[in-house]
Amino acid sequence: MSEARLGELVVGVGDGAFAEYMVLPAAVPVPAGWTAQEALGLMVNWPTALAALTTLGRVVAGETVLIHAAAGATGQAAVKIAKHYGATVIGTASPGKHEVVLALGADHVLDSRSDALAADVLRLTGGVDLVVESGGTLEASLAAAERVTGRVVVTGLAGGEAAITNWDLVYRHQVHVIGFNLGVLIETAPHLFGELMGELFGLIAAGVLSPGRPTTYDLADGPKALAELEARATVGKLALLP
After folding, report:
1. Is the pLDDT at 3 greater than 70, yes or no?
2. CATH number for the 45-183 domain, one of 3.40.50.1110, 1.20.1250.20, 1.20.58.760, 3.90.180.10?
3. How many CB atoms lie within 10 A of CB 3?
4. I need a labelling partner for 234 at 20 to 30 A (CA). Which of 14, 37, 72, 97 fits?
């Protein structure tokens, strides 16, 4: 991954995304030939998916991975990356998005809102090796993971907070629970972040990850975009156009 140069188009993450100007604590160059819109997932969604699968999840070929919110920006990247590394992929999404997830290469797709989600996963697998948990399905993720060796990487809390106790971990869910926050990784372990982004750009060069196609909204329609996002009515990345 090359360093950004003065005047170069970059993508980054920071506070104040609705501002006209902002200072980015971390940014990377947009790949040659890509537009800013196409690169939106490059700094948050794709690194999060990759870190959950490799840096933290340690996925290997032949394992089974459960990816929640698989039709979202992070989930879509996770499906592609997991398949690239030789995993069997089970995605979850609302029924209207199942075809999107299957088209990405997922081997199975399940209803994310089903009360029997964990039971459905266990019927398919007997227990998955790795779960990419994005929030709101933590209990199902813990129940679906393989006992003792299963890993659950928690990348967000889109569905609200979920509680887990030491009793749960000792007597109900004997699995590895791993928390992930990209900002903390950048600040605390910049060398790991550099390695992660190097791997990410390698996947781009290999064609595993291609330019994104976000759903676009005018800036004035920002409230509408956020409402649709909250209602889980969106697919992939969203972009606000100034």
Report:
1. no
2. 3.90.180.10
3. 8
4. 14
